Each structure stands twice: as C-alpha cells, then as structure tokens.
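Lecture notes, unit on protein representations.

Consider one protein chain, 670 amino acids long.
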Amino acid sequence: MAILTVLTVVYAVAGKLSLQLAFVEPSASPVWPPAGIAFAALLVLGLRAWPAIFIGAFLVNATTAGNLATSFCIAGANTAEALCGAWLVNRFARGIAVFDRAQDVFKFVLIAAVSTVISASIGPMSLALAGFAHWSNYGVIWLIWWLGDLTGYFIFAPLILLWWTRPRWQEERRRTLEAIVLLVLIAGLAELVFGKWFHEFVSRYPIAFICGPLILWTAYRFTQRETITGVVILTGIALGGTLAGTGPFVSRTPNDSLLLLQAWAAVLTITTMTLAAALAERRRAEAELEQQHRMVQRADQTKDKFLAMLSHELRTPLTPVLALVDFLEAECGDSKEIREALATIRRNVILESRLIDDLLDLTRVVRGKFNIEREPTDAHEAIRQAVEICRAEIDAKELDLQFDLAAENACVFADPAKLQQIIWNLLKNAIKFTPERGKVFIISRNQEPETITITVQDTGVGMEPELIGRIFTPFEQGHAAMQRRYGGLGLGLAISKAIADAHGATLLASSDGHDRGAIFRLQFQTVDSCAPEISRDGSEPPRATRTRLRILLVDDHVDTCAALTNLLTRRGHAVAIAHDLRTAIELAGTQSFELLISDVGLPDGNGVELMTHLRNAGVRGIAISGFGMGADLEKSLAAGFSEHLVKPLDFSRLEAAIERAMRPVEEVTS
C-alpha cells in the first residue's frame, strides 16, 4: 500500500510540473514524464498497480483545466495507455528485460508508439466534447499530447527500469571513475551547446548533433543503464537551455521549440539504446563463448585424465601376459604348436595395446602434437613387421597378399614405431574391408627422386566419392550399415594421416567406387642410408656386457612384479620387490641398488618422487607405466629416469633399456 501511495504522489507531482510547459492547451504538455513513470511502474509492480496511476492522473487533471468528467476520462486514458503498453511488452518483449536485446528495443518503440495513441486520442477528444478545447486545434493538441507521452516512454521508462534492475554502480572503481568522467563530459558539452556561451554561433548551425558521439561512446563502453543516464542528463540540460531561449532548437514559440527538442531526444534515445542493447548482446555472447570455452577446456582435461587412467588400467594387465609369453617361449623347446600359440598370444596382446594407443593418439590428433623420434628407418622392414602382426587375420580370411617392393631406396628418416603404425593401419583397413579370398597388394616405388611411395591396394568394398573426403576424419566409417557390419572405432586412418602430416609425408586415398576396392598411397622423403649409427672412430657403438645387477622393482600390480622378477632373475639379476613408495624407500635405506625399475603411479605416491629420492645415491632408473602421454615422458626424464617404457612391456625392450641405462656416463654423454 505504501509503494502505491508513493507512486500516486510521484505521478501527480511529475504531472503538475510537466503541465507548466503546456503552452497551447493547459492539459497537453510536449514534455510528459508521467507516461514513462506509469509504464515502468506497471512493469515493476505488476498490472494490479493501475489504481495508483489512475488516482495520480485524476488529481493532476482535476486541479488543472476541465471538470470531473474530463478529468475522469483523461485519467482513464492515461491508465489504459500504461496498461496496454505494459501488457504488450510483457507479452511480446520480455517484460522488465525489454532493453536487454536490440530486437526487443525495436518492439518497445513500436509498442510505445501504438499505446500512446490511446491517451493522445481520448484526452483531446474529451476536452473538445466538453467545450474546453476547439475542434480546430484537435490535430495540434493530439500531436503535442502524443509526442509528449512518447518521449516520456522513451526517456524515463528505460531510466527507471534499468536502475531498478541494476541499482548498484560499476563494480570496479576504475570503471566507476571512467563512467563519472564520461557523464561529466556529456554535461559539459550539453552546457556548451545549449547554454548562453555560444548561443549566437549555435543558433545558426545544427551543432546539437555533436552531442551524439559522446552518447554513442557511452553505449560502446558501458551498458544500457549508463547510456540512458547520459541521455537524461543531456536532455535535461537541453530542456533548460531551450526554455531559456538558447540552443539550436529555439523556434518561433516555446511549444515549437519543445516539440523540436522532444523529436531530437526521441531519435537520439532510440539510436543509442538500440546500439547499447546490441553491444550488450555481443558482450553476453562473448562471455558465454568464453564460459563454454572454459567448460570445453575442463572437459578436455577431464577426458585426457580419463583416457590416461583408462590406458594405464588397460595396459597394466598386459605386461605380465607378455612377460609370461617370453618365459614360455624360452621353456617350450622345439614344440611348433606351442610356439605358434604363444606367437598368437603375443600378436593379440600387441593388437590390444595398439587399440589403446589409438585412443590416446586421438588426443594427440586433436592437439596436433605427436612424440616423434626420427631415425633412419627401413620402410620395407616396417612393412614386413606390419604384415607379421596381421598374418593371422590374412590367413583367416584366406586373402591373397601380393608384394611388389621394387623401391631401390626404402630408407626414410622417420619414427620406426610410427611408420609401422601407419602401414599397420592401412593394411588392417584393407583386410577389414576385403571379402574372403580377396586380394591385397603392397607396392613400393621410387617414382620420384628422393621419395618412396608405398601403396596399399585392395579388392574390397571401396568408397563412394563423397566418403573419400571424410575418410581421414576421426570416427568416420561411412554409412550406418557399414559401421554395424564392420565395427571398429574409425580412428586408424585419421591417426595415420596425422602421423604422416607430422613427418611431412603425404597420405592420400582413392577409389573407383562401391565394390571396386580402395587405394592408399603413402609418400615419404628418402635418405641415403639406413646403416646403424657409428661412433666417431668409425666403429659401431659398443653394447654393454650383461652383468649381474641389483635391481629394485616397484609396481603395485602383483602379477607384473612376479612375471618381471622371474625373467630378470633368470638373466642373473638380483631383484627386490616393493608395491608402494614407502616400502621402496625402506628397502633403499637398508640395501644398495644399481637400478630402479618403477611404475610411475603408486598407491601412496609416484615413481617420480622415488627416482628423485634415489638419484643422489647414483641409482639409474627406468620408468614403466600405462601413462604414455608426452607430459608423462617429460616428467619421468626430468626426474632422472633414463627411459620411460609404456606398458605392456616386451622383455626385449626392457633388456635394451637396461643396457642403455647402465652404460658408463662417459659413453652416454660423448
């Protein structure tokens, strides 16, 4: 009730003050803030607040010209105008948030222009019917009334609504100071234009438009609230100057002057408020994009952590399997069946490891980062190794695999494992999409000087032309029927393309169409020789002689420790086992070790901490882990590990790593 009383008083006082500017008809003022006050009040307080508007309007008109009947009609028209405007804005322009978007500002302008017609039509008509105005002046009175109400909507409604929704000033002191300085500049410029100082000059030129850039700058730098505040300050000073007879809008009569001023103020308000709303939308969009970018980054980090943890958990059980395969191969004697069975186990473990690598490599594809260690590599040897890995699948489908390795120079400067991965993926793809008893061709040529082209061709399902452009996209496997029929992750070709690009090589695909096979061409630059590295004196680098080492083996996976211990002790090494960081440190405090072989992830710490603790005692280190990201390798090497081996471990790789780790320091640094 108190707020409605305050609203009635504010409306009545504003109305009485505004009627002081009614020069043509006592009830029609070209400046009418009560229209904007009533509209904003109904949006803020709800449509049920209309009685306060009606009573305030009735009091204004009952104490001016006319009688009770005309006062009742005008009060009803003013109330209906506000109700109509507020209902339409609530219905079509997001209510109290009408000034948040440029499109809603345009809707507000249209609604204001329509709803103010109600009061502008009924008010003058009631005065004319009661004999308080001449019908010959109806058009002039209507224009004054309508423009006064319309400008009241444009200027005072946004001022009230924007300060109501955001009552606090700028949150940052620097921004507050900037806003105050800008508003003071607007006031100073308004005083120059509409004051007495340059009246003679201003009266001859349309200099009022120089106020626009400062208001536009306010819209650019700040929000709609500061923009409308600047407009109100500018319009208030302009009104004072125009009434005093100074400024560019002074005309023949005070009423004409005010009409010109109001028209200028209305256009300025519409322009700047629309711009301010559009800029606010852009800022919100940028903030949302930034927030989404942060969310994507967090999701990406979470995904990387998940993939790293998943790969660790999937790789770890494979290590004891490979270790037991090594053990059984040494014990099986000459049994061909057992050796073939063990070879099958080894191939499938390696295959499982490669599938895990594909998941991790997808992250590297997205980031464009691959850990590539180049060295002179025989491409033909990489082909033969890839074929051996796929031999069981080739035989199972009874494929006719034909070789034509005619390239005279097959030596490339590449990462051997990555090169083999490309060829393996291409061959795997050919096997997958070629029906039983089909043909697969592997061809190498030196078609151009210093290049080798490796072609993998099949007689399989082929590709439609539109699919060729997407074949190297992650998870792309053609239409749904093909995905259901052949399965897989759809990562192999995408990863192969990324690896080729990282090497500066090219990988292209082509096909003559459905059921006409596919052709993949991989082209690398060649180098002169794939001979093993020689030392400065011309001899091959010496291999360390196998000696009995005191080894501390740390891994929380019991089967891995058991399998590796079995193999290491059979090579004559003395092995002590620990399954956590605390036990490992205790063992290192009571025993002397030459080599640490440690998992990176431990239940109560990590291998990096352990290596840091032991490196001062001269202990060499080899890290073993299911974590194979580039950052993991960097952390291990920075902690003092000589090598970082990714699970599953082939024992021959571990033996080679032990030899490299135990080389004399002079040899390593030479």
